[in-house]
Amino acid sequence: MAKVRPCILLILIALLSASTGKAQVGDARHILSVGASGGVNLNSASFSPSVKQQSMMGITAGLTGRYISEKYFAMICGAQVELNISQRGWNQLFEITSTNDEGISVTQKDPSKKYLRKMTYVDIPFLAHLAFGNERGLQFFIHAGPQIGFLLSETETISGIDMNKLNDTQKALYTTKADNKFDYGIAGGGGLEFNARKVGRFLLEGRYYFALSDFYSTTKKDYFSRAAHGTITVKLTYLFDLKR
Length: 244
Hints:
single chain, 244 residues, mainly beta, Porin, eight-stranded antiparallel β-barrel, two-stranded antiparallel sheet, 2 helices, 11 strands
């Protein structure tokens, strides 16, 4: 299998602009690491027409494999793939407007109504890994790349809502299962990695996933023209080296 070189374009630019050719670049690395991760998702869905929401919390956990291929100047380059179980969805925000003692209209959350959709996916991100810092200590890293997902299940929680008096948006949302089970988009983020030598590697990461696909049908005859996930993930990963 050919060596993965996610930094090759950056290095070509650096070589063209370098004032000397004596510096050693592209030092090979052959570090294969595997491990597991777990964390939380802060979810919302992008709808058009829009739907008012508050953040929905879910969990994510899975397996991680990473290969570090080389180092260019101060930048460590590699590739990472993951297999995660991830909860996504949205939590609709209901509001009521009332008038205070001064005659001013005040809008606040309506606690008597609730609509929550949880969608469980198996996600597979394919990420470029770029890191800076001490290879035997603390590093800062950046992850970016495509992600695909497959919908495993979905559940609804509905309370305090008269199902016989739904508006058009609610009719399009409630009890309507996802039309598309395949999901794809772009993931990116960054964090800190600590190499504890023989103990292993510990990574704390923040990541954002932007879906390019819609989970509802969004043709001209459908109610929504956009129905896609947006997820902020905070996760902790543990890796140990299989090969150095």
